[in-house]
Amino acid sequence: MDKSFLSRLTFWKSVAIILITLGLYSVFIRFTGGLGAATNLSDEFPWGLWLGFNILCGVGLSAGGFTLCGIVYIFNLKDFKPLVRPAILTAFLGYLLVITALMIELGRPDKIWHTLIMWNPRSVMFEVAWCVMLYTTVLALEFSPIVLERLGWKTPLKIIKSITIPLVIAGVLLSTLHQSSLGSLYLIVPNKLYGLWYSELLPVFFFISALTVGCGMVIIESYLSSRTFKRELEFPLLLRLGQVMVILIMVNVVVKFIDLMDRNSFDLLFLNRTETYLYWLEVFLGLIVPFIMMNFKKIRFNRAGLFYSALFVILGFILNRMNVSVTGMESGSGASYLPSWMEVFITMAIVSLGFVAFTLIGKYFPVFSEVHTPPNKNSQISKYIV
């Protein structure tokens, strides 16, 4: 084997190759042997890891795209513009991978076009499917200037830039609809979903948590890309975005408190059950810990501290979606579920593909803007103290 190839094969590249290889093998088994050969799903528990993580988490973790576009182009906060392109790239890749995961789960990608002509407007899934398809199209158009600039195609670039505002408005509307509608999927199972997670406000919870994790994802992406591509971190902008994240955490806590009070469900918080512990864990990781961390100046004004605060938000978000889709549904379905190793490796392969694609596009396309560091960084950052 070529020694130069081995010298370029880092630890993380090796991990990605292994995960993608095992994932492709598992996909082959899934399509040739069916769900039974590749998963631990059953008639009693038909939605598992692939729906909970690949779709519910994948869509939510891609919320940074419409969040940043709304901040810059609708609220006209142009300072955040350097963060827009990486956020759009993350969102675009996220939705492409969500669609890929959905095709694997459904097992009949050749039938996906049925949604376009066989309408069922009374179905929440129908609305989500259309919103995801339309928003992915919007993201492709929002991402296209990066490709057009790389290719030097000026005329198409001017056309796309002239319709930026309508595209952003359409993207925000579509994202608002399907981010909340994913929560609406579970409104039809009041007798199956455990009481700590079932609520008529599920669509509201899904939307607020998507906004929160969208801010966290932009912080994580900026931090990791600055280290990967050896570029300056937009720390003052990320600091302000972190403050927005804290406000959204507070909104989330208040809405949760009001909801539990309105449903007289406070007693569920203290029952000796697995669901109770996992609910408290999601609240602790995703709300309490980052809120406390962001209220300490030494952590808030530290790059690693801001990164880990956002990471806790993301971990709490993932746990919430998995609790809703798996933990909460197990208690009412009468069935236990543990994903098979193939389910796990397909999920890990999809995540790995996302990292690989982002790295390659970031390396060869004009994704990142030049960061202009002010002469006095300390005075620039100090004005964001809360």
Architecture blueprint of SSEs:
Elements: H1 3-8, H2 11-33, H3 35-38, H4 49-61, H5 64-74, H6 84-106, H7 114-117, H8 124-151, H9 154-162, H10 164-184, H11 202-228, H12 235-262, H13 274-294, H14 297-300, H15 303-333, H16 341-364, H17 377-382
Helix pairs in contact: 2-16, 4-6, 4-15, 4-16, 5-6, 5-10, 5-11, 6-8, 6-16, 8-9, 8-10, 10-11, 11-12, 11-15, 12-13, 13-15
Q: What can you tell me about this protein's structure?
A:
- With 386 residues, this protein is mainly α.
- The protein has a single domain, classed as Up-down Bundle (Formate dehydrogenase/DMSO reductase fold), CATH 1.20.1630.
- The protein is built from 17 helices and no strands.
In short:
This protein has 17 helices and no strands.
Q: Which architecture per CATH?
A: Up-down Bundle
> How many discrete domains?
1
CATH fold assignment: Formate dehydrogenase/DMSO reductase fold
Question: What best-fitting shape do the alpha-carbon axes yield?
Answer: globular
Radius of gyration: 21 Å
Low-confidence stretches: 372-380, 382-386
The arrangement of helices and strands along the chain is HHHHHHHHHHHHHHHHH
Number of helices: 17
- Overall number of strands: 0
Cα separation of the termini: 56 Å
Percentage of β-strand residues: under 5%
Percentage of residues assigned to helices = over 70%
Describe the sheet with the most strands. none
Kindly state the mean pLDDT as a whole number? 88
**What class would the helix/strand composition place it in?**
mainly alpha
Looking at CATH, the homologous superfamily is: Formate dehydrogenase/DMSO reductase domain
Text of the CATH class: Mainly Alpha
